[in-house]
Here is the input.
Amino acid sequence: GESVGLHLPTLSVQEGDNSIINCAYSNSASDYFIWYKQESGKGPQFIIDIRSNMDKRQGQRVTVLLNKTVKHLSLQIAATQPGDSAVYFCAENLRGSNYKLTFGKGTLLTVNP
Amino acid sequence: DSGVTQTPKHLITATGQRVTLRCSPRSGDLSVYWYQQSLDQGLQFLIQYYNGEERAKGNILERFSAQQFPDLHSELNLSSLELGDSALYFCASSVGRGGAVDTQYFGPGTRLTVL
Here is the structure.
């Protein structure tokens, strides 16, 4: 089975609100985590990544938080826009696994205008 | 646009047939990865090549094979196709720095439909 899973399969927010997408992982040996965004009909698009020696990393309007104690990863999107509507995947790399990523099933984010 | 290109965009074929999917990585990237995305299995890693050599293998069926050529483009060959092989097939590439994980950038995918 997969070691990466998502708490919420769907999330609906109002434009301008902040969004939080959660992800749980079960393998404490994972050392690298990535968030991807996939719009309909397109390939996954890299958003942000974080290594296991970090707790937080910020990008443009996005923040990833890593809680290794409870094996939890979250993606925060500030001031969510309609263009943020997509499926968001978290993925993990197991240390020593030669870079093959294990993906969660994804969360569908819908932004209402 | 990630810089990774895949052809064809769509492919419709019959059971028992064989198809070849093609991927060109981003300029400068040495690693190529293949993934299968289906509704029931999500995004599954199939195989990785680095500078022409197989580096890692995932849930790839024996009916499937891949290779990376000297110009670094890669092909995924799917044979004896079954209805269940219908899926989106993505290629991703990365710089492939030795000993470190690096970001994978995905292509637009090939949608395979097996009738």
